[in-house]
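User: Structure with shikimate-3-phosphate, tokens only please.
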Amino acid sequence: MGHIFLIGMPGSGKTTIGSALAKKMNLATIDLDYEIEKHEGVSISTIFKNKGEVYFRDLEAEVLREVIKLSVPHIISTGGGAPCFHDNLAKILDSGTSIYLSLKPETLYRRHGKKAQNRPLLTGLEGEALYEELLSKLKKRGPFYERAQIIIPCDGKNIPEITQEIYERLLKEQAKS
Ligand code: S3P
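Assistant:
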């Protein structure tokens, strides 16, 4: 068994679902953004502010490659942009099972509240502008996310329901292989 990757838009619940799934499957979990912060010793927002997005994307690809090398299977929660830069998606597809936590833009908008906080690419956006940005990102990123082996529509479901659905789909995938 390879790693299990959770991919999807910011606010789709990758970290939370990652922890719940890890518990259920008795696997260790890794949050890619947290690993990046550990590597740099500062927050993601600070990396974006001081070094810019290109630097962040290079680092993200490097940390993803390192994490993939772990011989023990992990549940890996990725940052929203991770599958869309460099050859990250190919690496993810090659190294285990990928799961796209899919949400409608309306749901993402509601989750981000009136104002997106702690998310450098959404900082300062609210109301209509925030909704438009989420919509545009979803349009650009959808084709990457949709290449995941498993797609879970998450609107209207709670964490235990989503976790259970992923678990059952993983069992089915395993039975196929
Ligand atoms: C990003 C999403 C963030 C983080 C960085 C860039 C993006 O992760 O990696 O701020 O490009 O969508 P989350 O999806 O966990 O918010």
